[in-house]
Amino acid sequence: MGMKTGAHIVWDWNGTLFHDIDAIIGATNAAFAELGLEPLTLEKYRELYCVPVPKFYERLMGRLPTEAEWEAMDDVFHRYYAEHRTACGLTVGAVELLAGWRSTGRSQSILSMYVHEELVPLVRGFGIEPHFIRVDGRTGPSGGSKAEHMVRHLASLNGVAPERTVVIGDAADDAVAALHVGARAVLYTGGSHSRVSLEAVGVPVVDTLEEAVEEAERLAA
């Protein structure tokens, strides 16, 4: 029973460790403009956002986008985001929290739906890669749920028990993915969802990453 059996955090990236909500709103609005839709405010975005993303677009358009519309919007979204994410930084306190968790001998990893080959250099560029035992981005098509990715992610971590694992993310889908594998979840309000929509999920909801880590500590105890 070494340190390996300790608590493990699976961090989400976008909107959680990486404070990119402004770039995401901008990218979403650029994608909407493509179809002549009105731009969204941050509040409206957080109120309506959901995955799969085509479902989110349906809430705004009153219908699902066609295949061609989805491809056009997805393309504009990623182009805009790639250009604007360079101005985004890590969430306040993230570096200290990651170092602190690691210094106690506990493990942590990243599971993101952001493209794997773009995620890794980004994490590396912030100098935080050594804090994680694994960094997994998305491989395969965009738009799906995190649940299946979470199964593979946890299976690839040696000696990490799902019941001692806490997923920290900014989306209802992070909690869905956690519950899917028998892990716990803490949801953070600094990203894509409003507090109201996160509270509907039934897991702890916090306003800072510091509170998220404290909550993770309690849940995994």
Automatic annotation (TrEMBL):
Coiled coil: none annotated. Signal peptide: none annotated. Its EC number is 3.-.-.-. GO terms for molecular function: hydrolase activity. The keyword Hydrolase applies. Transmembrane segments: none annotated. Keywords: Hydrolase. This is HAD family hydrolase. It comes from Streptomyces iakyrus. The lineage of its organism: Bacteria, Bacillati, Actinomycetota, Actinomycetes, Kitasatosporales.
